[in-house]
Amino acid sequence: MTLPDVDARGTQHCETTALGVLLRTQGLDLSEPMLFGLGSGLSFVYWDSKRMAFPFLGGRVKPFDLTRNLASRLGLELVVRETSSPRRAWENVAAPIDAGHPVGLQLDSFHLDYFGSKVHFGGHVVAMYGYDDHDAYLVDTDQQGGAVTTSLAGLAQARAARGPMTAKHRSFTLSVPTDLPSPQVRITAAITACADAFLDPPIANLGHRGIEKAGKLVRTWLQRTDAPQRDLPQAALLMEKAGTGGALFRNLYRDFLAECTDLLDSGHLRTGHRLYTEAATLWTEVAALITKAGESGDTQCLDQAGTVLRDLSRIEREAMQSLSRLTVPVRSPTPPARAD
């Protein structure tokens, strides 16, 4: 059973890719930056513990918070199913697909056949639009191939995995109401909610305080691992390509703010866009310095990365302070000219 006419385009981030697939089947086609921004997806976390092999840098809100935020903001009907039963978990996926609706899944990417980098990540999200006796048909990011297949056995393992950020066979569907509010009218609320959370985090590991903390601790990363040539370049690759702490999510938010400047006339918005354009470039610089430190063992590279992260904490704080003041209403469309 494979759904026909599914727009199976992959984009840059897993959760927004899945959301795009689910919403386009119902006629709602928003850009990936708009999905990310309306879901108040931008954040930051520096996460480390004795049980972790290496620190984790997260550049977005927790897995699935973006989906919940987007559904709440646009009035979408979000149906989430979780279970400890593999049999029921499969029924929760097969039933909507058989009824003609793709399904979102949260799982551990380690067990997916097409993933080249075998790293456990329990917060990965894909859209599933079909299956046969052996394989599941999924949509993942462009980096992972867009429309892909994985074995049903591998999919079952990925969904059943337990560990950090995993969920119990989580699957979800979205329904678009007939009286959907214009996404434009939700922009201000989405931006200010994101800014307020970033500016006032409950702990020092989050938001702009988390970036500042990363700037201090990244200088110790060569002592944090016995395999710096492996761990530091891998951390930099995840930052830059998967977006766990680097430019990908800053690029998405920059592009979201650029779209918003066509809808809102606000100096605060233009300031935020300018500063996030600067921040995205600096995150790429941080990733390059971390990679070089791992390959060369040069501690000065990490010192430089720490200095740039300190600057990023300031830049992103200033950007969010400006965006938190956003109160300008959406521009009214220009009325068509009348023919006399």
From TrEMBL:
Listed InterPro entries: BtrH_N (IPR026935), DUF4872 (IPR032369)
Which Pfam families does the protein's record reference?
Answer: BtrH_N, DUF4872
Residue ranges annotated for the Butirosin biosynthesis protein H N-terminal domain, each copy included: 13-141
Top-level lineage group:
Bacteria
Q: Specify the DUF4872 domain's residue ranges.
A: 154-323
Q: What is this protein called?
A: BtrH N-terminal domain-containing protein
